[in-house]
Design brief:
By secondary structure, the protein is mainly α. Helix content is about 65%, strand content about 0%. It has 2 domains: about 300 residues; about 35 residues, no CATH class.
């Protein structure tokens, strides 16, 4: 196994290992602890890690095929596959850097407007610039892709001797399209730097004076960007150099491996290390925002004189810390409306429903069916006549009273029924009265 195959296996194992750490960071930073907002989408913080998965996949395929490049006696398909996926790594790596810078600016904006959502408008010049910059960046990246990938890769295999490589492979590896592709990738790098400057200008404190602004710009740039931006520039510079010098290009069957792996692969690997470490150190954005809100709430409470009691205060100052579970449940039931508290709070708990109001009866207007009403009242409330009273007064042994009834099926005389007594007197006996038995001359 030659040197190219050994180094290729090393990078294959390295990028396979980065997939595991990328998954951990994606889960950490992509998890939501706050409701989603229309202004900030959750996928915005995940794009960086998605692109890292893509770069790692391309790197594994390219580095594994480097083993076959050394194994084959004559250059064939493996050298084409190796370079094909390596050239795909370059724009996707630039996408990783871009998404990290873009999302950092979005995170600064989110922290700024969290206390006051109306502090920054959504239709001003700043918002329009942030809308068009990503479109321009991805346009440059796609143009880099179309300048490199859609081409005839057959001449790269024609390197069976140095003369054939000079006549067939070298012109194809150093043509104008590779030069334009490198320039387009450099323009995308400039757009990334501009996006970083734009975020610092609008979301960080402004310093006066040219020197103070330069110092503040460097001070506000996150440390990870101070490493990843130069590393990505080295990667782009190596691609541009390969479009002019065939001896250091990975398209060469026998390149200078120090330049190939030192400038073409090492910057991407170091860039991955920086982002994995930064992802491990940086907190989740939702958790950080919750912490900032808690701090602002404590400051506001302190300004207006509110002293918030600790969490253990309610447990120590309640009367149920010596009560059993059943007693606590019973106390809760009584507090919400059971037992005596219900009787005490009955008056304020009653709600009057909608009562049907009957039509008012005018006393001057005659009642319909008065005879039927009178007969029903007589059946329900029978009255005593004068004859019955005389019979009871002169009877030696009155008949035993039934339970709840008077003799003859009549009820005891009620003083409230005097208004209706004249109706029964006219008939002589009440309804349902028994026949009279004369026992003495006094009864006649």
């Amino acid at each position: 196994m030659k040197t190219r195959a050994k180094v290729g296996l090393f990078f294959a194992c390295f990028f396979l290992l980065t997939i595991m750490f990328t998954s951990i960071n994606l889960r950490k930073h992509g998890k939501l602890f706050l409701p989603t907002e229309k202004r900030f989408h959750a996928i915005g913080r995940r794009w960086q890690w998605y692109w890292m998965f893509v770069v790692a996949a391309f790197a594994v395929i390219s580095s594994i095929t480097d083993v076959d490049v050394d194994r084959y006696y004559l250059p064939e398909l493996p050298i084409v596959l190796s370079n094909f996926f390596w050239f795909l790594m370059l724009p996707t790596t630039m996408c990783v850097v871009w998404e990290s810078v873009r999302h950092w600016g979005s995170w600064q904006e989110r922290q700024m407007i969290d206390p006051n959502p109306f502090s920054l408008g959504q239709d001003d010049r700043r918002a329009k610039v942030e809308f068009y910059i990503p479109l321009l960046f991805y346009f440059l990246v796609w143009m880099n892709f179309f300048m490199i990938v859609p081409r005839a890769w057959g001449p790269i295999e024609l390197q069976r001797d140095p003369e054939q490589a000079r006549l067939k492979a070298e012109p194809m590896a150093t043509d104008t399209r590779f030069k334009i592709a490198a320039f387009l990738l450099f323009c995308s790098w400039i757009m990334t730097v501009f996006s970083l400057w734009h975020s610092i200008k609008h979301y960080k404190e402004r310093n006066r004076g040219l020197l103070n602004r330069a110092i503040g710009l460097i001070r506000y740039i996150p440390k990870k960007f101070l490493l990843t931006l130069p590393l990505s520039l080295v990667m782009i510079g190596y691609e541009a150099a390969c479009s002019f010098e065939f001896s250091i290009s990975p398209l060469n069957l026998n390149p200078e491996l120090g330049f190939m792996y030192g400038l073409g692969w090492a910057p991407i690997a170091l860039l991955f290390i920086v982002y994995e470490v930064a992802g491990y150190v940086d907190p989740n954005e939702d958790r950080e925002l919750i912490r900032q809100r808690r701090i602002r709430g404590a400051e506001i409470d302190q300004e207006i004189g509110i002293v918030k009691k600790p969490h253990w205060w309610s447990r120590l100052n309640r009367n149920n810390h010596m009560m059993s579970i059943q007693d606590q449940i019973a106390q809760n039931v009584n507090n919400v409306g059971g037992g005596q508290p219900t009787a005490r709070n009955l008056e304020r708990s009653i709600e009057m429903g909608n009562m049907l109001v009957s039509k008012r009866i005018d006393s001057t207007r005659p009642i319909a069916n008065s005879e039927s009403v009178h007969m029903a009242a007589t059946l329900l409330f029978p009255t005593r006549t004068d004859v019955q009273e005389t019979q009871e007064r002169f009877t030696d042994h009155p008949e035993p009273l039934l339970r709840g009834r008077s003799p003859g099926g009549t009820e005891p005389r009620n003083e409230n029924d005097r208004s209706e007594s004249h109706h029964s007197a006219a008939s002589g006996v009440s309804l349902g009265a028994k026949s009279q038995h004369i026992r003495s001359m006094l009864d006649v």
